[in-house]
Structures are given as structure tokens and as C-alpha cells.
Automatic annotation (TrEMBL):
Designated gene of the protein: tbp
InterPro entries reported in the protein's UniProt record: TBP, TBP_archaea, TBP_dom_sf
Pfam families cross-referenced by the UniProt entry: TBP (PF00352)
Protein name (Swiss-Prot/TrEMBL): TATA-box-binding protein
UniProt Sequence repeat ranges: 20-96, 111-187
Role according to the record: General factor that plays a role in the activation of archaeal genes transcribed by RNA polymerase. Binds specifically to the TATA box promoter element which lies close to the position of transcription initiation.
Length: 206
């Protein structure tokens, strides 16, 4: 006996997914550093003052790069979270200490920029969004995404029709999550989210 069952596939919209890609931070040590001494004592550093005034220090775990200047200031890039950034700074200080470089003060960390990616898991009608959304720029012949400048929090979002986006300008991880939640809510209220049509698929069972 042949039995035919008709099953309808439903497309439920998942919640937006957010991922931190890079955190750029400055670190102040409040003391002068002898970069030549660090170059002599600390392995795996790069220092060529004729080409660049800072010393380059790299860590594998977490995978970050630090630009260190004689003023005692550092620029640290590559962290994927605030906690990872703090861990990286502690390991830099510990590495210095283990090789005879004394850091007397407590390092002051300030996040300058967080770059994140997100996926709304739903398509976006960029033509509608460009017309209805404030503070945006959309020139599809020049760039495939819509640029939206959000004021609360103060970040810039690059939004693509696939629902994927890039967020820059945040100072805290919470601001990234808030920005994605806000833009999702706003686009939904403006009816700019494209719900994919449901496919009706026939499956046969014997």
C-alpha cells in the first residue's frame, strides 16, 4: 500500500547572532620604557626605530598584537572579548617581569573601538530601509551595503541584504548587543525585514 504524506516546511526566524571580531585598546603604564632593553631581553619582539617608533610584541594565546612605545603607552589589537584583552595585558606585563623589565604601575586599559559582525537571520529590503531609516547612506552602485549611523548607542552599522552586518565604533561589548537588538527592532517595525516564503514539500513514505 502506498502512503503519501504532505509535510509543510516552516521557516522560523532565529534570533540575531553577534560575534566580536576585534577589540582595539590603548594601555597606559605611567612610566617610560627602554625599548632597546626590551628588545635585548624579551624574545620574539620586533623593533626597528628607523622605520617605526614602536616595538611590536605578539602573543599566541590569546592571539594579539601590541605596539609598545617608550612613553609607556601601548596599542593592543586582536582580542575577541574584554576578558581576553585583560588576559593579554597581564601576560605582556608578566613576560616583561620574567625577563627583568619592571613595570611599577597598574596598567590602565581603555577600549577605543570594537568591531563585530552580526547576522539577523532574515533578509533585509535595503531599498525600503534606505527610504524609511534615518541617518543612513545607501548607494548600491558604489557599495552593496547600507551604512547606518546609530546614535544610541553611538555606532556605525554596515547592513547587507542577506541580513549580515558589521558594527564598528562601540566602546563596550554591551553596546554591540544593544545596537543589533535596536536595529532588528527598528527594521521590523518599519517592515523592512523580508520573510522568506514557505516551501511546501511532498515526501513519500512507503
Amino acid at each position: 500500500m502506498l502512503m503519501v504524506c504532505y509535510m509543510k516546511k516552516t521557516n522560523s526566524i532565529s534570533k540575531p547572532v553577534v560575534q566580536i571580531e576585534n577589540i582595539v585598546a590603548t594601555v597606559t603604564l605611567d612610566q617610560q620604557l627602554d625599548l632597546h632593553e626590551i628588545e635585548r631581553k624579551v624574545p620574539r619582539v620586533e623593533y626597528n626605530p628607523d622605520q617605526f617608533p614602536g616595538l611590536v610584541f605578539r602573543l599566541d594565546r590569546p592571539k594579539i598584537t601590541a605596539l609598545i612605545f617608550k612613553s609607556g603607552k601601548m596599542v593592543v589589537t586582536g582580542s575577541k572579548s574584554t576578558q581576553e584583552l585583560i588576559t593579554a595585558v597581564k601576560r605582556i606585563i608578566k613576560t616583561f617581569y620574567n625577563h627583568g623589565i619592571k613595570i611599577t604601575g597598574r596598567p590602565k586599559i581603555q577600549i577605543q573601538n570594537i568591531v563585530a559582525s552580526a547576522n539577523l537571520n532574515v533578509d533585509v529590503n535595503l531599498e525600503d530601509a534606505a527610504y524609511k531609516l534615518e541617518n543612513n547612506m545607501y548607494e548600491p552602485e558604489q557599495f552593496p551595503g547600507l551604512i547606518h549611523r546609530m546614535t544610541d548607542p553611538y555606532v556605525v552599522l554596515l547592513i547587507f541584504s542577506s541580513g549580515k552586518m558589521v558594527i564598528t565604533g562601540a566602546k563596550r561589548e554591551e553596546e554591540v548587543s544593544k545596537a543589533v537588538e535596536n536595529i532588528y527592532k527598528t527594521l521590523k517595525e518599519l517592515d523592512c525585514l523580508v520573510t522568506k516564503s514557505e516551501d511546501e514539500q511532498e515526501e513519500e513514505f512507503f
